[in-house]
Amino acid sequence: MIKAGIFGTTGYTGFELAKILWRHPGVRIQFATSQSQPGRRLSDLFPAGPDLPLIHPKEASLAEIDVLFLCLPHALAAPAAIEALKEGTRVVDLSADFRLKNPGLYSQWYGHEHPAPHLLVEAVYGLSEFSREELPAARLVANPGCYPTSILLALQPVLQARAIGGTIIADSKSGVSGAGRSPRQHTHFVEVSDNFYPYKIGRAHRHLPEIEQGLSLWHDDPPPIIFSPHLLPIPRGILSTIYVPLKDNWSETDLRIHYQEAYTGEPFVRILPAGELATLAHVNHTNRCVLSLTVAANTLILTSAIDNLVKGAAGQAVQNMNLMFGIEETIGLI
Amino acid sequence: MIKAGIFGTTGYTGFELAKILWRHPGVRIQFATSQSQPGRRLSDLFPAGPDLPLIHPKEASLAEIDVLFLCLPHALAAPAAIEALKEGTRVVDLSADFRLKNPGLYSQWYGHEHPAPHLLVEAVYGLSEFSREELPAARLVANPGCYPTSILLALQPVLQARAIGGTIIADSKSGVSGAGRSPRQHTHFVEVSDNFYPYKIGRAHRHLPEIEQGLSLWHDDPPPIIFSPHLLPIPRGILSTIYVPLKDNWSETDLRIHYQEAYTGEPFVRILPAGELATLAHVNHTNRCVLSLTVAANTLILTSAIDNLVKGAAGQAVQNMNLMFGIEETIGLI
Amino acid sequence: MIKAGIFGTTGYTGFELAKILWRHPGVRIQFATSQSQPGRRLSDLFPAGPDLPLIHPKEASLAEIDVLFLCLPHALAAPAAIEALKEGTRVVDLSADFRLKNPGLYSQWYGHEHPAPHLLVEAVYGLSEFSREELPAARLVANPGCYPTSILLALQPVLQARAIGGTIIADSKSGVSGAGRSPRQHTHFVEVSDNFYPYKIGRAHRHLPEIEQGLSLWHDDPPPIIFSPHLLPIPRGILSTIYVPLKDNWSETDLRIHYQEAYTGEPFVRILPAGELATLAHVNHTNRCVLSLTVAANTLILTSAIDNLVKGAAGQAVQNMNLMFGIEETIGLI
Amino acid sequence: MIKAGIFGTTGYTGFELAKILWRHPGVRIQFATSQSQPGRRLSDLFPAGPDLPLIHPKEASLAEIDVLFLCLPHALAAPAAIEALKEGTRVVDLSADFRLKNPGLYSQWYGHEHPAPHLLVEAVYGLSEFSREELPAARLVANPGCYPTSILLALQPVLQARAIGGTIIADSKSGVSGAGRSPRQHTHFVEVSDNFYPYKIGRAHRHLPEIEQGLSLWHDDPPPIIFSPHLLPIPRGILSTIYVPLKDNWSETDLRIHYQEAYTGEPFVRILPAGELATLAHVNHTNRCVLSLTVAANTLILTSAIDNLVKGAAGQAVQNMNLMFGIEETIGLI
Question: Looking at domain A2-122, does it have CATH number 3.40.50.720?
């Protein structure tokens, strides 16, 4: 039985994680913390959720657990990671603190110095399908962002095939839970409802450097990318429509074969047959990433769907934990 | 041309009012204020809205206008009303400050002393259909609450007919704009979406004393009432389903005749034919109140639908203004 | 391992049932039928659903299974039940065919003769919490309707306490999946969205006689009841707000004690503490019924929330199956 | 007073048109037809709509009106147009029948011979901003499709500037009313709600040839275009995010100047200031098209928002009618 702790349980990601770990047959939740509401129970905040007591992080005994999940805002996660590692506890960080290898990029995009640059080398970027070799030995895992997960899983095979002939365009649409649980004007029900809008399009969103770093894992000189997020008036789910200019006249059939090979045997990645397109109905409330391929005007159009809270956050964190501890990768996940 | 000012333009009620007045052929908006965002334009906050400059309330020249609309929180409206009246400006107050005639009730339900008890006698309760006689001479109009409007318009005829034989039950359902525009946890899109819930049911909501006062206008000893509001996961609209135990075996036909007579010629109240029920689709974005009557088990079941922001707030305020200034009651309204 | 078959898998109830049975550790789905789309797979219709082949009902081998679930329209379920019982297969019928004990009532409300009146005596009305004694021996179970489940679970304790002093009013609100999956004008997205409306209020809905029959199980002369359903613009969930006039001055505290005793140890019924009210967030995607009690104006106000597709249909069917086969009642359910 | 008739009033487009014409001070609706529901009133189907009687098209007297609006399915509109023109009545056709100049393209995309190829030359493609010269004399106007309107208005200035250096990508998202009012599985509330999906992406949607024809109006050899529509879980609105590879290092500032000049004085087209992006909240329930410009990675990213039922259909039809009859272009429109 893996003993787990959760830091930051009352956001959407922390709650989703608590729900998954609660039903996971190989895990015991040793504690779940809340800075703002210690003493309450998780089911007070999420009435259908597990009836877990929330303790103040200062009361959490890091030495007693095998793994600590950090669902904290960036800059707060890194110090907690340092403390846990000191106690010999492994860490899965769901914040952005250890995703970017380059601390300069981090400070440029997040507006402050990196709080623990010495840990960046060892942190494993936990896009599970591509980090299975490093996870078993990892002490510290940087769980990927939601948009990067949907985009990188879609692009890896075509990048690896060296089939890209120009600027990639990722037009992504996300449900509102991606904006966090703190109430703000732009997440008020009346503002979101019946509306739809783009934000930070082009090359302005913090997930851009993470996506670019991901691409560079598989290509020394990856093509440029434009990334345009939009807000959907629904609670959850990300669908990215990605446009990849092709070189060398790759056909849809050849690309499909390539994708099928790349993801053969993957429990959570599914390539749809020709003529079908990814939808949020394929993936919401599951850890799946569903991909489709369409070629038109010498461009590969990928549609990639994930649940931002599951494969885009808590589900992938548990998938990574399963891999870290050498148990079946799919346990506790749908 | 009526010269109008608006205090508190950036909430949902203030914005709806600005939209209606902007298109009203007999009104010129002289100023629109915002405490928090002076210097911006209303269309910055509501992109499809009128392009009005927002000024700080201190810069508003009350003497220059004919009528001031107060879309302020309770306790803040009364002082502004006092100031306007001093300048000879008539006031339509959309807050709760002048609705309850009894200052003791006010302090009991709103938690503080009434800020201007001396004005309570003169304030006209502006349920337009029943205050046409007092409005032309009114200096100060208390615009009714949204729930009370939907319930009182439905109950007046059966109350006047002395047909009620027991406790009235008003089960009301409101869209989220009724909760105001300030972002709070319970108005976060993700919390509201796919959810539905009751709140302050029984005899616990602040609109209860206003409803009871309304009933007592038409009956010396009105029957007891239970009022149960619920939150609908939609932006706007109120539907109240009201259960009235009947005495003396009133039939649906007789009640219907009574209702039709009561509301003959009313431009904004519509009694549906037998077999039809009120829906939000009947009323949203209009100043209408649509009513249906059904009798079952010796109980009159009324359904009453209004748009909470129009007939339940800004629309009725304009209807009241039209009546105050002696112009056609329906001008500027749909 | 219980071998189960499903008739009528492509409606919302059939699909929900397939999802629950698919994950149920004690069940093997032997077949799942579809009259209209045999040869396809369930995941073609519900992309996140189980990858089950759909066969034509004529190809289903009834003798091979232990239990047959009928998710068919009324009038079609009864003949299928007859056939299954002939083969010695037990039946859980999710249609209305065996709910009403009185075939005259059935033909009055459903517009045709009862297709199998000889089976009505033996059919067990499967409101699980109140049929545990009969279920182990039952050959044929009539799974309750969604509205009746939410209302009867709420009313049983106060009825049994003989505390009711007048007409009960059940004001219920349901998500759209309760209207079935066949596309019709009134379930078109644009018609439902941003709307809310009552339908068949008073004593006009087919679930009324089922509710009255349920009440008569616990009271020789049950009080009259008014039942008013409404359509919520969300996919799932029922919340019933129920008004019960009290006699003998029952207090909220005494009623609460009574309810807590009535449901002590019940895995799927929860009485909320004083001051809390039921919401759909308490129950959606679970088999729970959550109840609250409030007393005002000598009236007990109950709020009762269930997921119409789970406790109101497929979940309760599985709960009943667990009880029929003598396995743990909660297996496979949340 | 322009005397207008409407053919096909009970779809979403026909209803929106009836609403606009009903309030238009210069128009009298002479008749409104419905093939399926003659004898009913429009307000029976759309309870907040105008109380217009619906007649059978056979009873419509075409000679009595000045203009006939066709809100019929393709193939049915053309014969009605022929008849009206015979009577000397001018026609605004909101179907696809007269949009494509090439009857071969029409039969390729619509699956049948063109029903009136002899009228194609004279039909004016009514993208109002670019057909003001032809509209006053036009007998027959082909009202543009909703997606083409959003895309062509966005692209005209950059196309005219000869600034495009590669394949254009239009990633469009539309509300459900664009799918029509006939109930079908994929417009069922439960299927759409909480979902989001692409359809007919690449070069597969019927609006593609119309978009390409539009581009060729302003460029002899227009660049290739990819067009990917998606379905938003909301009733109305289209937002197109359009990616235009630039040549010659056009800057955002230069492009912005170019756009502002192109649309100077246009009452219904608005170019947002730098840093702002188009949203549906800018345009829904108005006849506006709101555009934003962002340059990143040598690509112009346009966001273009319209209400699909107003500027994308009925509103533009009225704008065209105003221009045809020489009255103020903005009358009756917001």
Answer: yes
CB contact under 8 A, A198 and D299: no
Burial of C261 by CB count in 10 Å (0-12 exposed, 13-18 middle, 19+ buried)?
Answer: exposed
Q: D183 vs C181: CB contact, 8 Å cut-off?
A: no
Distance CA C279, CA A47 (A): 8
Q: Exposed, middle or buried, D40 (CB in 10 Å: 0-12/13-18/19+)? A: middle
Domains A2-122 and A147-308 share a fold: no
| List of chain D residues whose C-beta atoms are within 8 Å of the C-beta of residue C190 | 12, 176-177, 181, 187, 235-236
Report the amino acid identity of residue C14: G
Q: Report DSSP letters for D162-226, one per residue.
A: T-B-S-EEEEEEE-GGGG-SS--GGGBHHHHTT--EE-STTT-STHHHHHHHHHHHH-SSPPPEE
CATH number for the domain running over A147-308 = 3.30.360.10
Confidence of residue C119 (pLDDT cuts 50, 70, 90): very high
According to CATH, the superfamily of the domain at B147-307 is Dihydrodipicolinate Reductase; domain 2 (3.30.360.10)
Would you say A242 and A293 are in contact if contact means Cβ atoms under 8 Å apart? no
B12 touches chain A (CB under 8 A): yes
For residue B126, with 0-12 CB atoms within 10 Å meaning exposed, 13-18 middle and 19 or more buried, which class applies? buried
* C249 has a pLDDT exceeding 90: no
CB neighbour list of residue B327: distance below 8 Å, 6 or more residues apart:
B2, B26
Given a cut of 90, whether residue C232 has pLDDT beyond it is yes
B24-33: pLDDT as tens digits: 999 999 999 9
Helix ranges restricted to H, A207-267: 207-218, 252-262
Query: How distant is the Cα of C234 from the closest Cα of chain B, in angstroms?
Result: 5
* Among A48, A194, A286, beta carbon nearest to C48: A286
Tokens 């609100």: give the residue. Answer: C173
Ordered by start, the domain boundaries in chain B are: 2-122, 147-307
Per-residue pLDDT reduced to its tens digit, C187-224: 999 999 999 999 999 999 999 999 999 999 999 999 99
Q: What is the pLDDT of residues C91-108, one digit of tens each?
A: 999 999 999 999 999 999
pLDDT beyond 90 at B241: yes
Q: Rounded to an integer, what distance in angstroms lies between the CA atom of residue A253 and that of residue A295?
A: 9
Best to test chain B binding among C172, C196, C226 (most B CBs inside 10 Å): C196
Contact C189 D192 (CB under 8 A): yes
Per-residue pLDDT tens digits for A114-128: 999 999 999 999 999
Closest CA to C16 of C178, C152, C127: C178
Predicted pLDDT of residue D248 = 83
Q: Cα D322 to the chain's mean position, in Å?
A: 16
Mean pLDDT of the region B253-268? 97
Cβ-Cβ pairs closer than 8 A, C with D, add up to 55
Q: How far apart are CA C35 and CA C57, in angstroms?
A: 6
> pLDDT at position B248, please?
83
Q: Report the pLDDT value the prediction gives residue A209, as an integer from 0 to 100.
A: 98
- Retrieve residue C155's tokens: 């009313």
The closest CB to that of C185, out of D176, D183, D234, belongs to D183
Question: What average pLDDT score do residues B101-127 get?
Answer: 97
**Mutate: best of A168, A188, A196, A307, partner D, most D CBs <10 A:** A196
For residue A249, what pLDDT is reported? 85
Within chain D, which residues score under 70 in pLDDT?
Answer: none
Record: contact D294-A202, CB cut-off 8 A? yes
Rounded distance, CA B169 to CA B180, Å?
25
User: How many beta-carbon contacts under 8 Å exist across B and D?
Assistant: 25
- Interface contact D169-A169, CB threshold 8 A: yes
Q: Tens digits of per-residue pLDDT, A152-211?
A: 999 999 999 999 999 999 999 999 999 999 999 999 999 999 999 999 999 999 999 999
